[in-house]
Amino acid sequence: MAVTPSEFYKLNVDELRLRCFEEGLSSEGPVRLLRPRLVRHLTGATMESKQHAEKAQASAQSNVSLDATHGGPFESNFGSHAGGCSNVVPVIVELLRKVPSLSSDEPEAILRLVGKLDEIYSLRLVDEKMYVIRILQLLSGAVLSFFGECLRNGRSWEQCKRELLREFFHHFVRERLIRDHIVFNFHQENEALRDYVS
Questions:
Q1: Is residue 130 domain-shared with residue 193, that is, in the same domain?
Q2: Residue 121: is its pLDDT beyond 50?
Q3: Tens digits of per-residue pLDDT, 145-193?
Q4: Which terminus of the chain is less hemmed in, N or C, by CB atoms within 10 Å?
Q5: Structural domain harbouring 193
Q6: Which ranges of the chain does DSSP label H, i.e. alpha helix?
């Protein structure tokens, strides 16, 4: 039965000697020596086990953060890690937190999102595989499935972008986007569209 240090002061001399014997301590001497001996032993053992537990926890957390920074247990086919330092991960997390999640599978929404993600990727704070893992939380639907497939097949960020264009931006979609971009950004409100095109 476990006894706390304060409870040793309730034990009589025979009980104290028995506890000392059980703990592997000397049971010689009067009560005034037996009690402090037991208390020191119990307190030391408790502190030692607590320190051991804290070291084990710190070691486990260190391994997890190292895995998170360097791509974990995966063998990466992507570019090399640019930072090599665990403090870049919070920077990526903070930058991605400011990017709104994908709201639909509309080409315009995908284009806006990928444009912002490409800007953040250009900083090269983490390797490509880790970056794709981090952006998955911003995606949904077919785009999430697409990037999941990219991740499984070990494609680079540039390859993912090229295939995204083929998958979601067919020729007629690209033409429409270009036309809308020209009409809504360069065409003057009072100017006839036919004159502008000419």
A1: yes
A2: yes
A3: 999 999 999 999 999 999 988 888 887 777 887 777 777 766 666 667 6
A4: N
A5: 88-197
A6: 13-23, 31-69, 88-97, 107-121, 128-135, 141-152, 157-168, 171-185, 193-197
Question: Which two structure tokens, joined as six digits, stand for 134?
Answer: 């981090």
- Do 104 and 176 fall into the same domain? yes
| Closest by CA position to 76, among listed 161, 156, 145, 149 | 156
In whole angstroms, what is the distance from residue 2 CA to residue 160 CA?
61
Q: Under a CB-based contact definition with an 8 Å cutoff, are residues 92 and 125 in contact?
A: yes
Burial, 54: exposed, middle or buried (Cβ in 10 Å; 0-12, 13-18, 19+)? exposed
pLDDT at 84: 46
**Residue 81 placed within a domain:** no
| pLDDT given for residue 178 in this prediction | 76
